[in-house]
Amino acid sequence: MNTSFFGELLQTISERGRALIDRTRDRRGDAAARSESLVELCEELLTGRGEASGVALAREILTRYGELTTGPRIAFFEALATRFGVDRERIDAAVEGWWKASSDDAAAELHVAAEPRRQELFRRLNLAPGGTAALVAMREDLLDAMVHRDDLSAVDQDFVHLFSAWFNRGFLVLRRIDWGTPAIVLEKIIRYEAVHEIGDWNDLRRRIDPPDRRCYAFFHPALIDEPLIFVEVAFTHGIPGAIGPILGQDGNTLEPGRADTAVFYSISNCQRGLAGVSFGSFLIKQVVEEVSREFPRLSTFVTLSPVPGFAGWLKRERSNDASLLTPEDRAPLAALDAPGWWSDQATAERLREPMLRAAATYFLSARSKSGAPVDPVARFHLGNGARLERLDWLGDRSDKGIAQSYGLMVNYQYDLDDIEKNHEAYAETRTIVAANAIRRLARAPRDLVKV
Q1: Is the CB of residue 410 less than 8 Å from the CB of residue 387?
Q2: Burial track 106-132 (b if 16+ CB lie within 10 A, e otherwise)
Q3: Options 305, 323, 365, 405, the catalytic residue
Q4: Which terminus of the chain has fewer CB atoms gathered within 10 Å of its CB, N or C?
């Protein structure tokens, strides 16, 4: 109700401000022509002081931006990069003032001077009705443009800086998604699912309606009915090693009171424009607290995760003379080239041990230039304080699972007593906390950094 009230109030201010702008432009005559371009309107927004007219102008800018095609949008981003950066003269003056008097006032002026003008522009655009959603969508366009335009990265950094504050955990609301959730939200859950595709409404219901299933999402007050990130949870007895039974259609459910394990089997970010703004760690930890209160008998919290980078890495290693793979393991891996190898039980069994050794090496030794694991899902969970607990051979036999990881899945375990310690170890030294069984499988040196 409060969100609706303030939204309507902002809309009223915008309408009245727009009338004021129109009357002012009528009096300025030819000056209106100089304010027609989007960039000129942005300059006008930054120099204006009236709140009502500012809200209306922000709304007009966002409306006009939404009507742009790809070329003019890129030109607009170029202007943001070149014309709305820092005021260099003001920075020079602020630096000089700091050297003359290292006071709090001088430090504050230096801080303000060092901020690019586009950050204040984004703040003022955010005052428009629907401004936050429009800016998130604008950043999506920027990310598309940056595929071929590295020179726009400064604009992107400013978006991330502001979004990290606007979407601070303190503003996020955790909501459970169930069959009684409004259809507009359920439709978005189907659309945004990024790990295991939801086939239809019946498939969605199997994931959120039975007593042994849960789904939770983070929402932000400025994005009504738009989930930011959601996690799907299954209650099981023991740690599962395959996704098939969880996604299956057999209708069997487990009484939650008999479960001892909560399995996070799908985590999906919903807003591409918020890439780089982390919600996942908060989501998992809060969901753990939520289900623990509801089901005190739960003692184990694990994921059943995909390994999206494994197949590509293994293909490169097999063709690399300086491979991390041992000669003994490389020979049997040739069977991976045979069509449908995973359907042949004997072939799959021969591949099990060399593939698990290769996977252990991948997780413990395949690193980026920064020293982080090359696998993005591993970076996410290890950075959040999880332990690499178990490798699951042929845990995902779907076409996608075979293509991205030869069917391999992995369990990361969130031990409530060790989360903070594991997180600190990873953050400080990129230490990968892994079960002893996985460490014994790995053949490569632990300190080897390899892309």
Answers
A1: no
A2: beebbeebebbbbbebbebbbbbbbbb
A3: 305
A4: N
- Say whether pLDDT at 374 is over 50: yes
No. of helices (H) and no. of strands (E), the chain:
20, 7
E-only strand ranges, 312-426:
387-392, 409-413
Q: Are both 2-166 and 310-441 of the same fold?
A: no
How far apart CA 311 and CA 162 sit, in angstroms, is 36
Question: Does the pLDDT of residue 443 top 70, yes or no?
Answer: no
Residue 413 backbone phi and psi in degrees, to 5: -110, 135
Phi, psi (degrees; rounded to nearest 5) at 268: -125, 125
Residue 305: active-site member: yes
Q: Single out the catalytic residue among 53, 266, 268, 381.
A: 381
Mean pLDDT of all residues belonging to the chain: 88
| Tally of CB atoms within 10 A around 331 | 11
Topology adopted by domain 2-166: Butyryl-CoA Dehydrogenase, subunit A; domain 3 (1.20.140)
Distance CA 345, CA 351 (A): 10
